[in-house]
Amino acid sequence: MDRLTRKELKSDRFALEVQHSVEYVTEHRRQLIRWGGIGAAVIVAVVAFLIYRNYQHTARQEALREAMQIANSNVGASPTPGIKTYATAAERSKDVVKAFGDIVAKYPNTDEGAVARFSLAVNAADDGNTAEAERNFKAVVDSGNEQYGSLAKLSLAQLYASQGKTAEGAKLIQSVIDHPTVLVSKEQATIALAELLAPTDPQQARKLLEPLRSSPRSNISGKAISALSELQKSK
Question: Residue 196 to residues 171, 173, 183, 190: CA-CA distances in angstroms?
Fold first, then answer.
């Protein structure tokens, strides 16, 4: 997608469509997750990209679209018309790294570059290369792209949590709560923080979730209620 201008980011229509897509992904989170919360996060990024494609068509978008097709291709399955199939996950991963890596190299300071870097992080996580995943998520956070940086912070926080670094993860999510974006609302970040804290501080997690169970936004209230239910089960 073309680098978003401040005017475009403030566009009511753009913001509304992106938010609806984010809410759809959140509502179907359990069906969409491939690698913890990171899988869901990258799908949010892809949805936002597909929406914004309707506003601009550029070579950068086309390169990103082709890279996404590789990342979403099948492995070891019967060929499906219109969907590329790889014999092994390793072969697909190699092409994913090249496709997104080329975009990062050519367009480092664009939204396409941020999405590509984010996707490299997800691919590394899927391959079990947590050091590479962390490096790329940090690069997105440090890029100054607030939108995709907020997604990267949530994913990086979940990565830290899997390593027992709950405090570091909580700090990242709190920064999103303090500075929400179009792609990650304050409520969504709050739920993410509650889920992060649940194993070690269920009381604080419950305190964060309780006010959200009555949210007028069905995806937020539903997720809060679901998270509260999980807390009850863990007692």
Answer: 11, 9, 19, 10
In order of 3, 68, 123, 149, 151, the CA distances from 9 in angstroms are 10, 23, 28, 15, 16
CATH at 47: 1.25.40
Indicate whether 29 pLDDT > 50: no
Residue 51 placed within a domain? yes
149-169 burial code (b ≥16 CB/10 A, e <16) = bbbbbbbbbbbbbeeeebeeb
Which residues are within 8 A (CB) of 160 and not within 5 positions of it... i.e. 6 or more apart?
A: 166, 168, 169, 172
Specify the pTM: 0.75
Query: Angle between the 146-162 and 130-142 helix axes, to the nearest 10 degrees?
Result: 150
133-162: pLDDT as tens digits = 999 999 999 988 898 899 899 999 989 998
Per-residue tokens: 195:
């889920």
* Mean pLDDT in residue range 40-47: 52
Measuring CA to CA, which residue among 106, 95, 36 is closest to residue 70?
95
Residue 13 Cα to chain centre, angstroms: 21
Our CA dihedral for 90, 46, 164, 174, rounded to 10 degrees, sits at 160
Query: For strand 85-86 and strand 74-75, is the pairing parallel, antiparallel, or unpaired?
Result: parallel
* pLDDT tens string 76-124: 867 777 778 898 989 999 999 999 999 999 998 888 899 899 999 988 9
Beta bridge partners of 74: 85
Whether 1 is covered by a domain: the verdict is no
